[in-house]
Amino acid sequence: MEALENRMENDDFEAFDENTDALPEVEPFEPTGDPRFFFESRQHVEALARLKYLIFQETMLLGMLTGEIGCGKSMVRQTLVKQLPSERFFVVQFENSGFDFTSHLRRLLNTFGLGDYASEKQGIYDLYELVAHCMAQLKKIYGQNLVLLFDEAQDLALDALRQIKSLTNLNERGEGSLTIVLIGQPELRDLIARVPAVDQRISLRYHLKPITLDEIEPYLRHRLTAAGFRDSRVFTKEACERIFQASRGILREINRLARLSIQAAGHNGDKEGVVEGHDVHMVVEDLRRHQNMPAWGSITL
Prior knowledge:
Blueprint: H1 10-17, H2 42-57, E1 62-67, H3 73-83, E2 89-94, H4 101-111, H5 124-142, E3 145-150, H6 158-166, H7 169-172, E4 178-184, H8 187-193, H9 196-199, E5 202-208, H10 213-226, H11 237-247, H12 251-268, H13 277-291
Parallel strand pairs: 1-4, 1-5, 2-3, 3-4
Helix pairs in contact: 1-12, 2-3, 4-5, 10-11, 11-12, 11-13, 12-13
């Protein structure tokens, strides 16, 4: 069978919709940072609550969120940003942390609207002091605290990590309030451990784990509802169990399997818009042949 993922078309999804009580606004399992799709699993709610606590305290300086690839760290970040009141916090997101410290300073100054002052002629000290001035003005004029979110922070070089930590010294100078959150894959923890000066300043750490078996069905229904489906009872219990088994609870894999399983159900002629266990099984076996997906685990299906 030709790999399903390579032949998915939008009209195939719509064909499956004909057998459902649904009028989807968007496809429910496509990659998205839209906070409407944030699923309140125990892990994700805890991660969000801890990061909000860190930022609202204003004195905790540094926080770290880690998790496996595809477990929902970026969705937590986007949801966090949406829930932070803009009148109190000025948030800057760095979606790619793999640059040197000077590049990060220039990006920050561009966000402040001071890109003309962040030319290549400016040395790192001048850029640093200009950031300090902006941070002080944010606090003095607008009453805002600066929040920096570094995604993919495991890509930071050691020197850049040390220099980013130096920004927290601005808090001690009384020139405003700054909180930095480092977000990345598990190897970020090893990176941090190599820089004791940073390690000691991290006030909050949280490792985001995959969702559990009892959360898989609510997760799938939530995605369907958020996408505009009136009837979110699309996946049978067996289908949910098989998706969990193959995905190991990792959200990105769940989304991929769910999307392809809906596609497979449409091709199999399943009635009433229902995805059965055999649809998921067909998708997983196809992915195993074409993409070396791990074999089924120890759970009996």
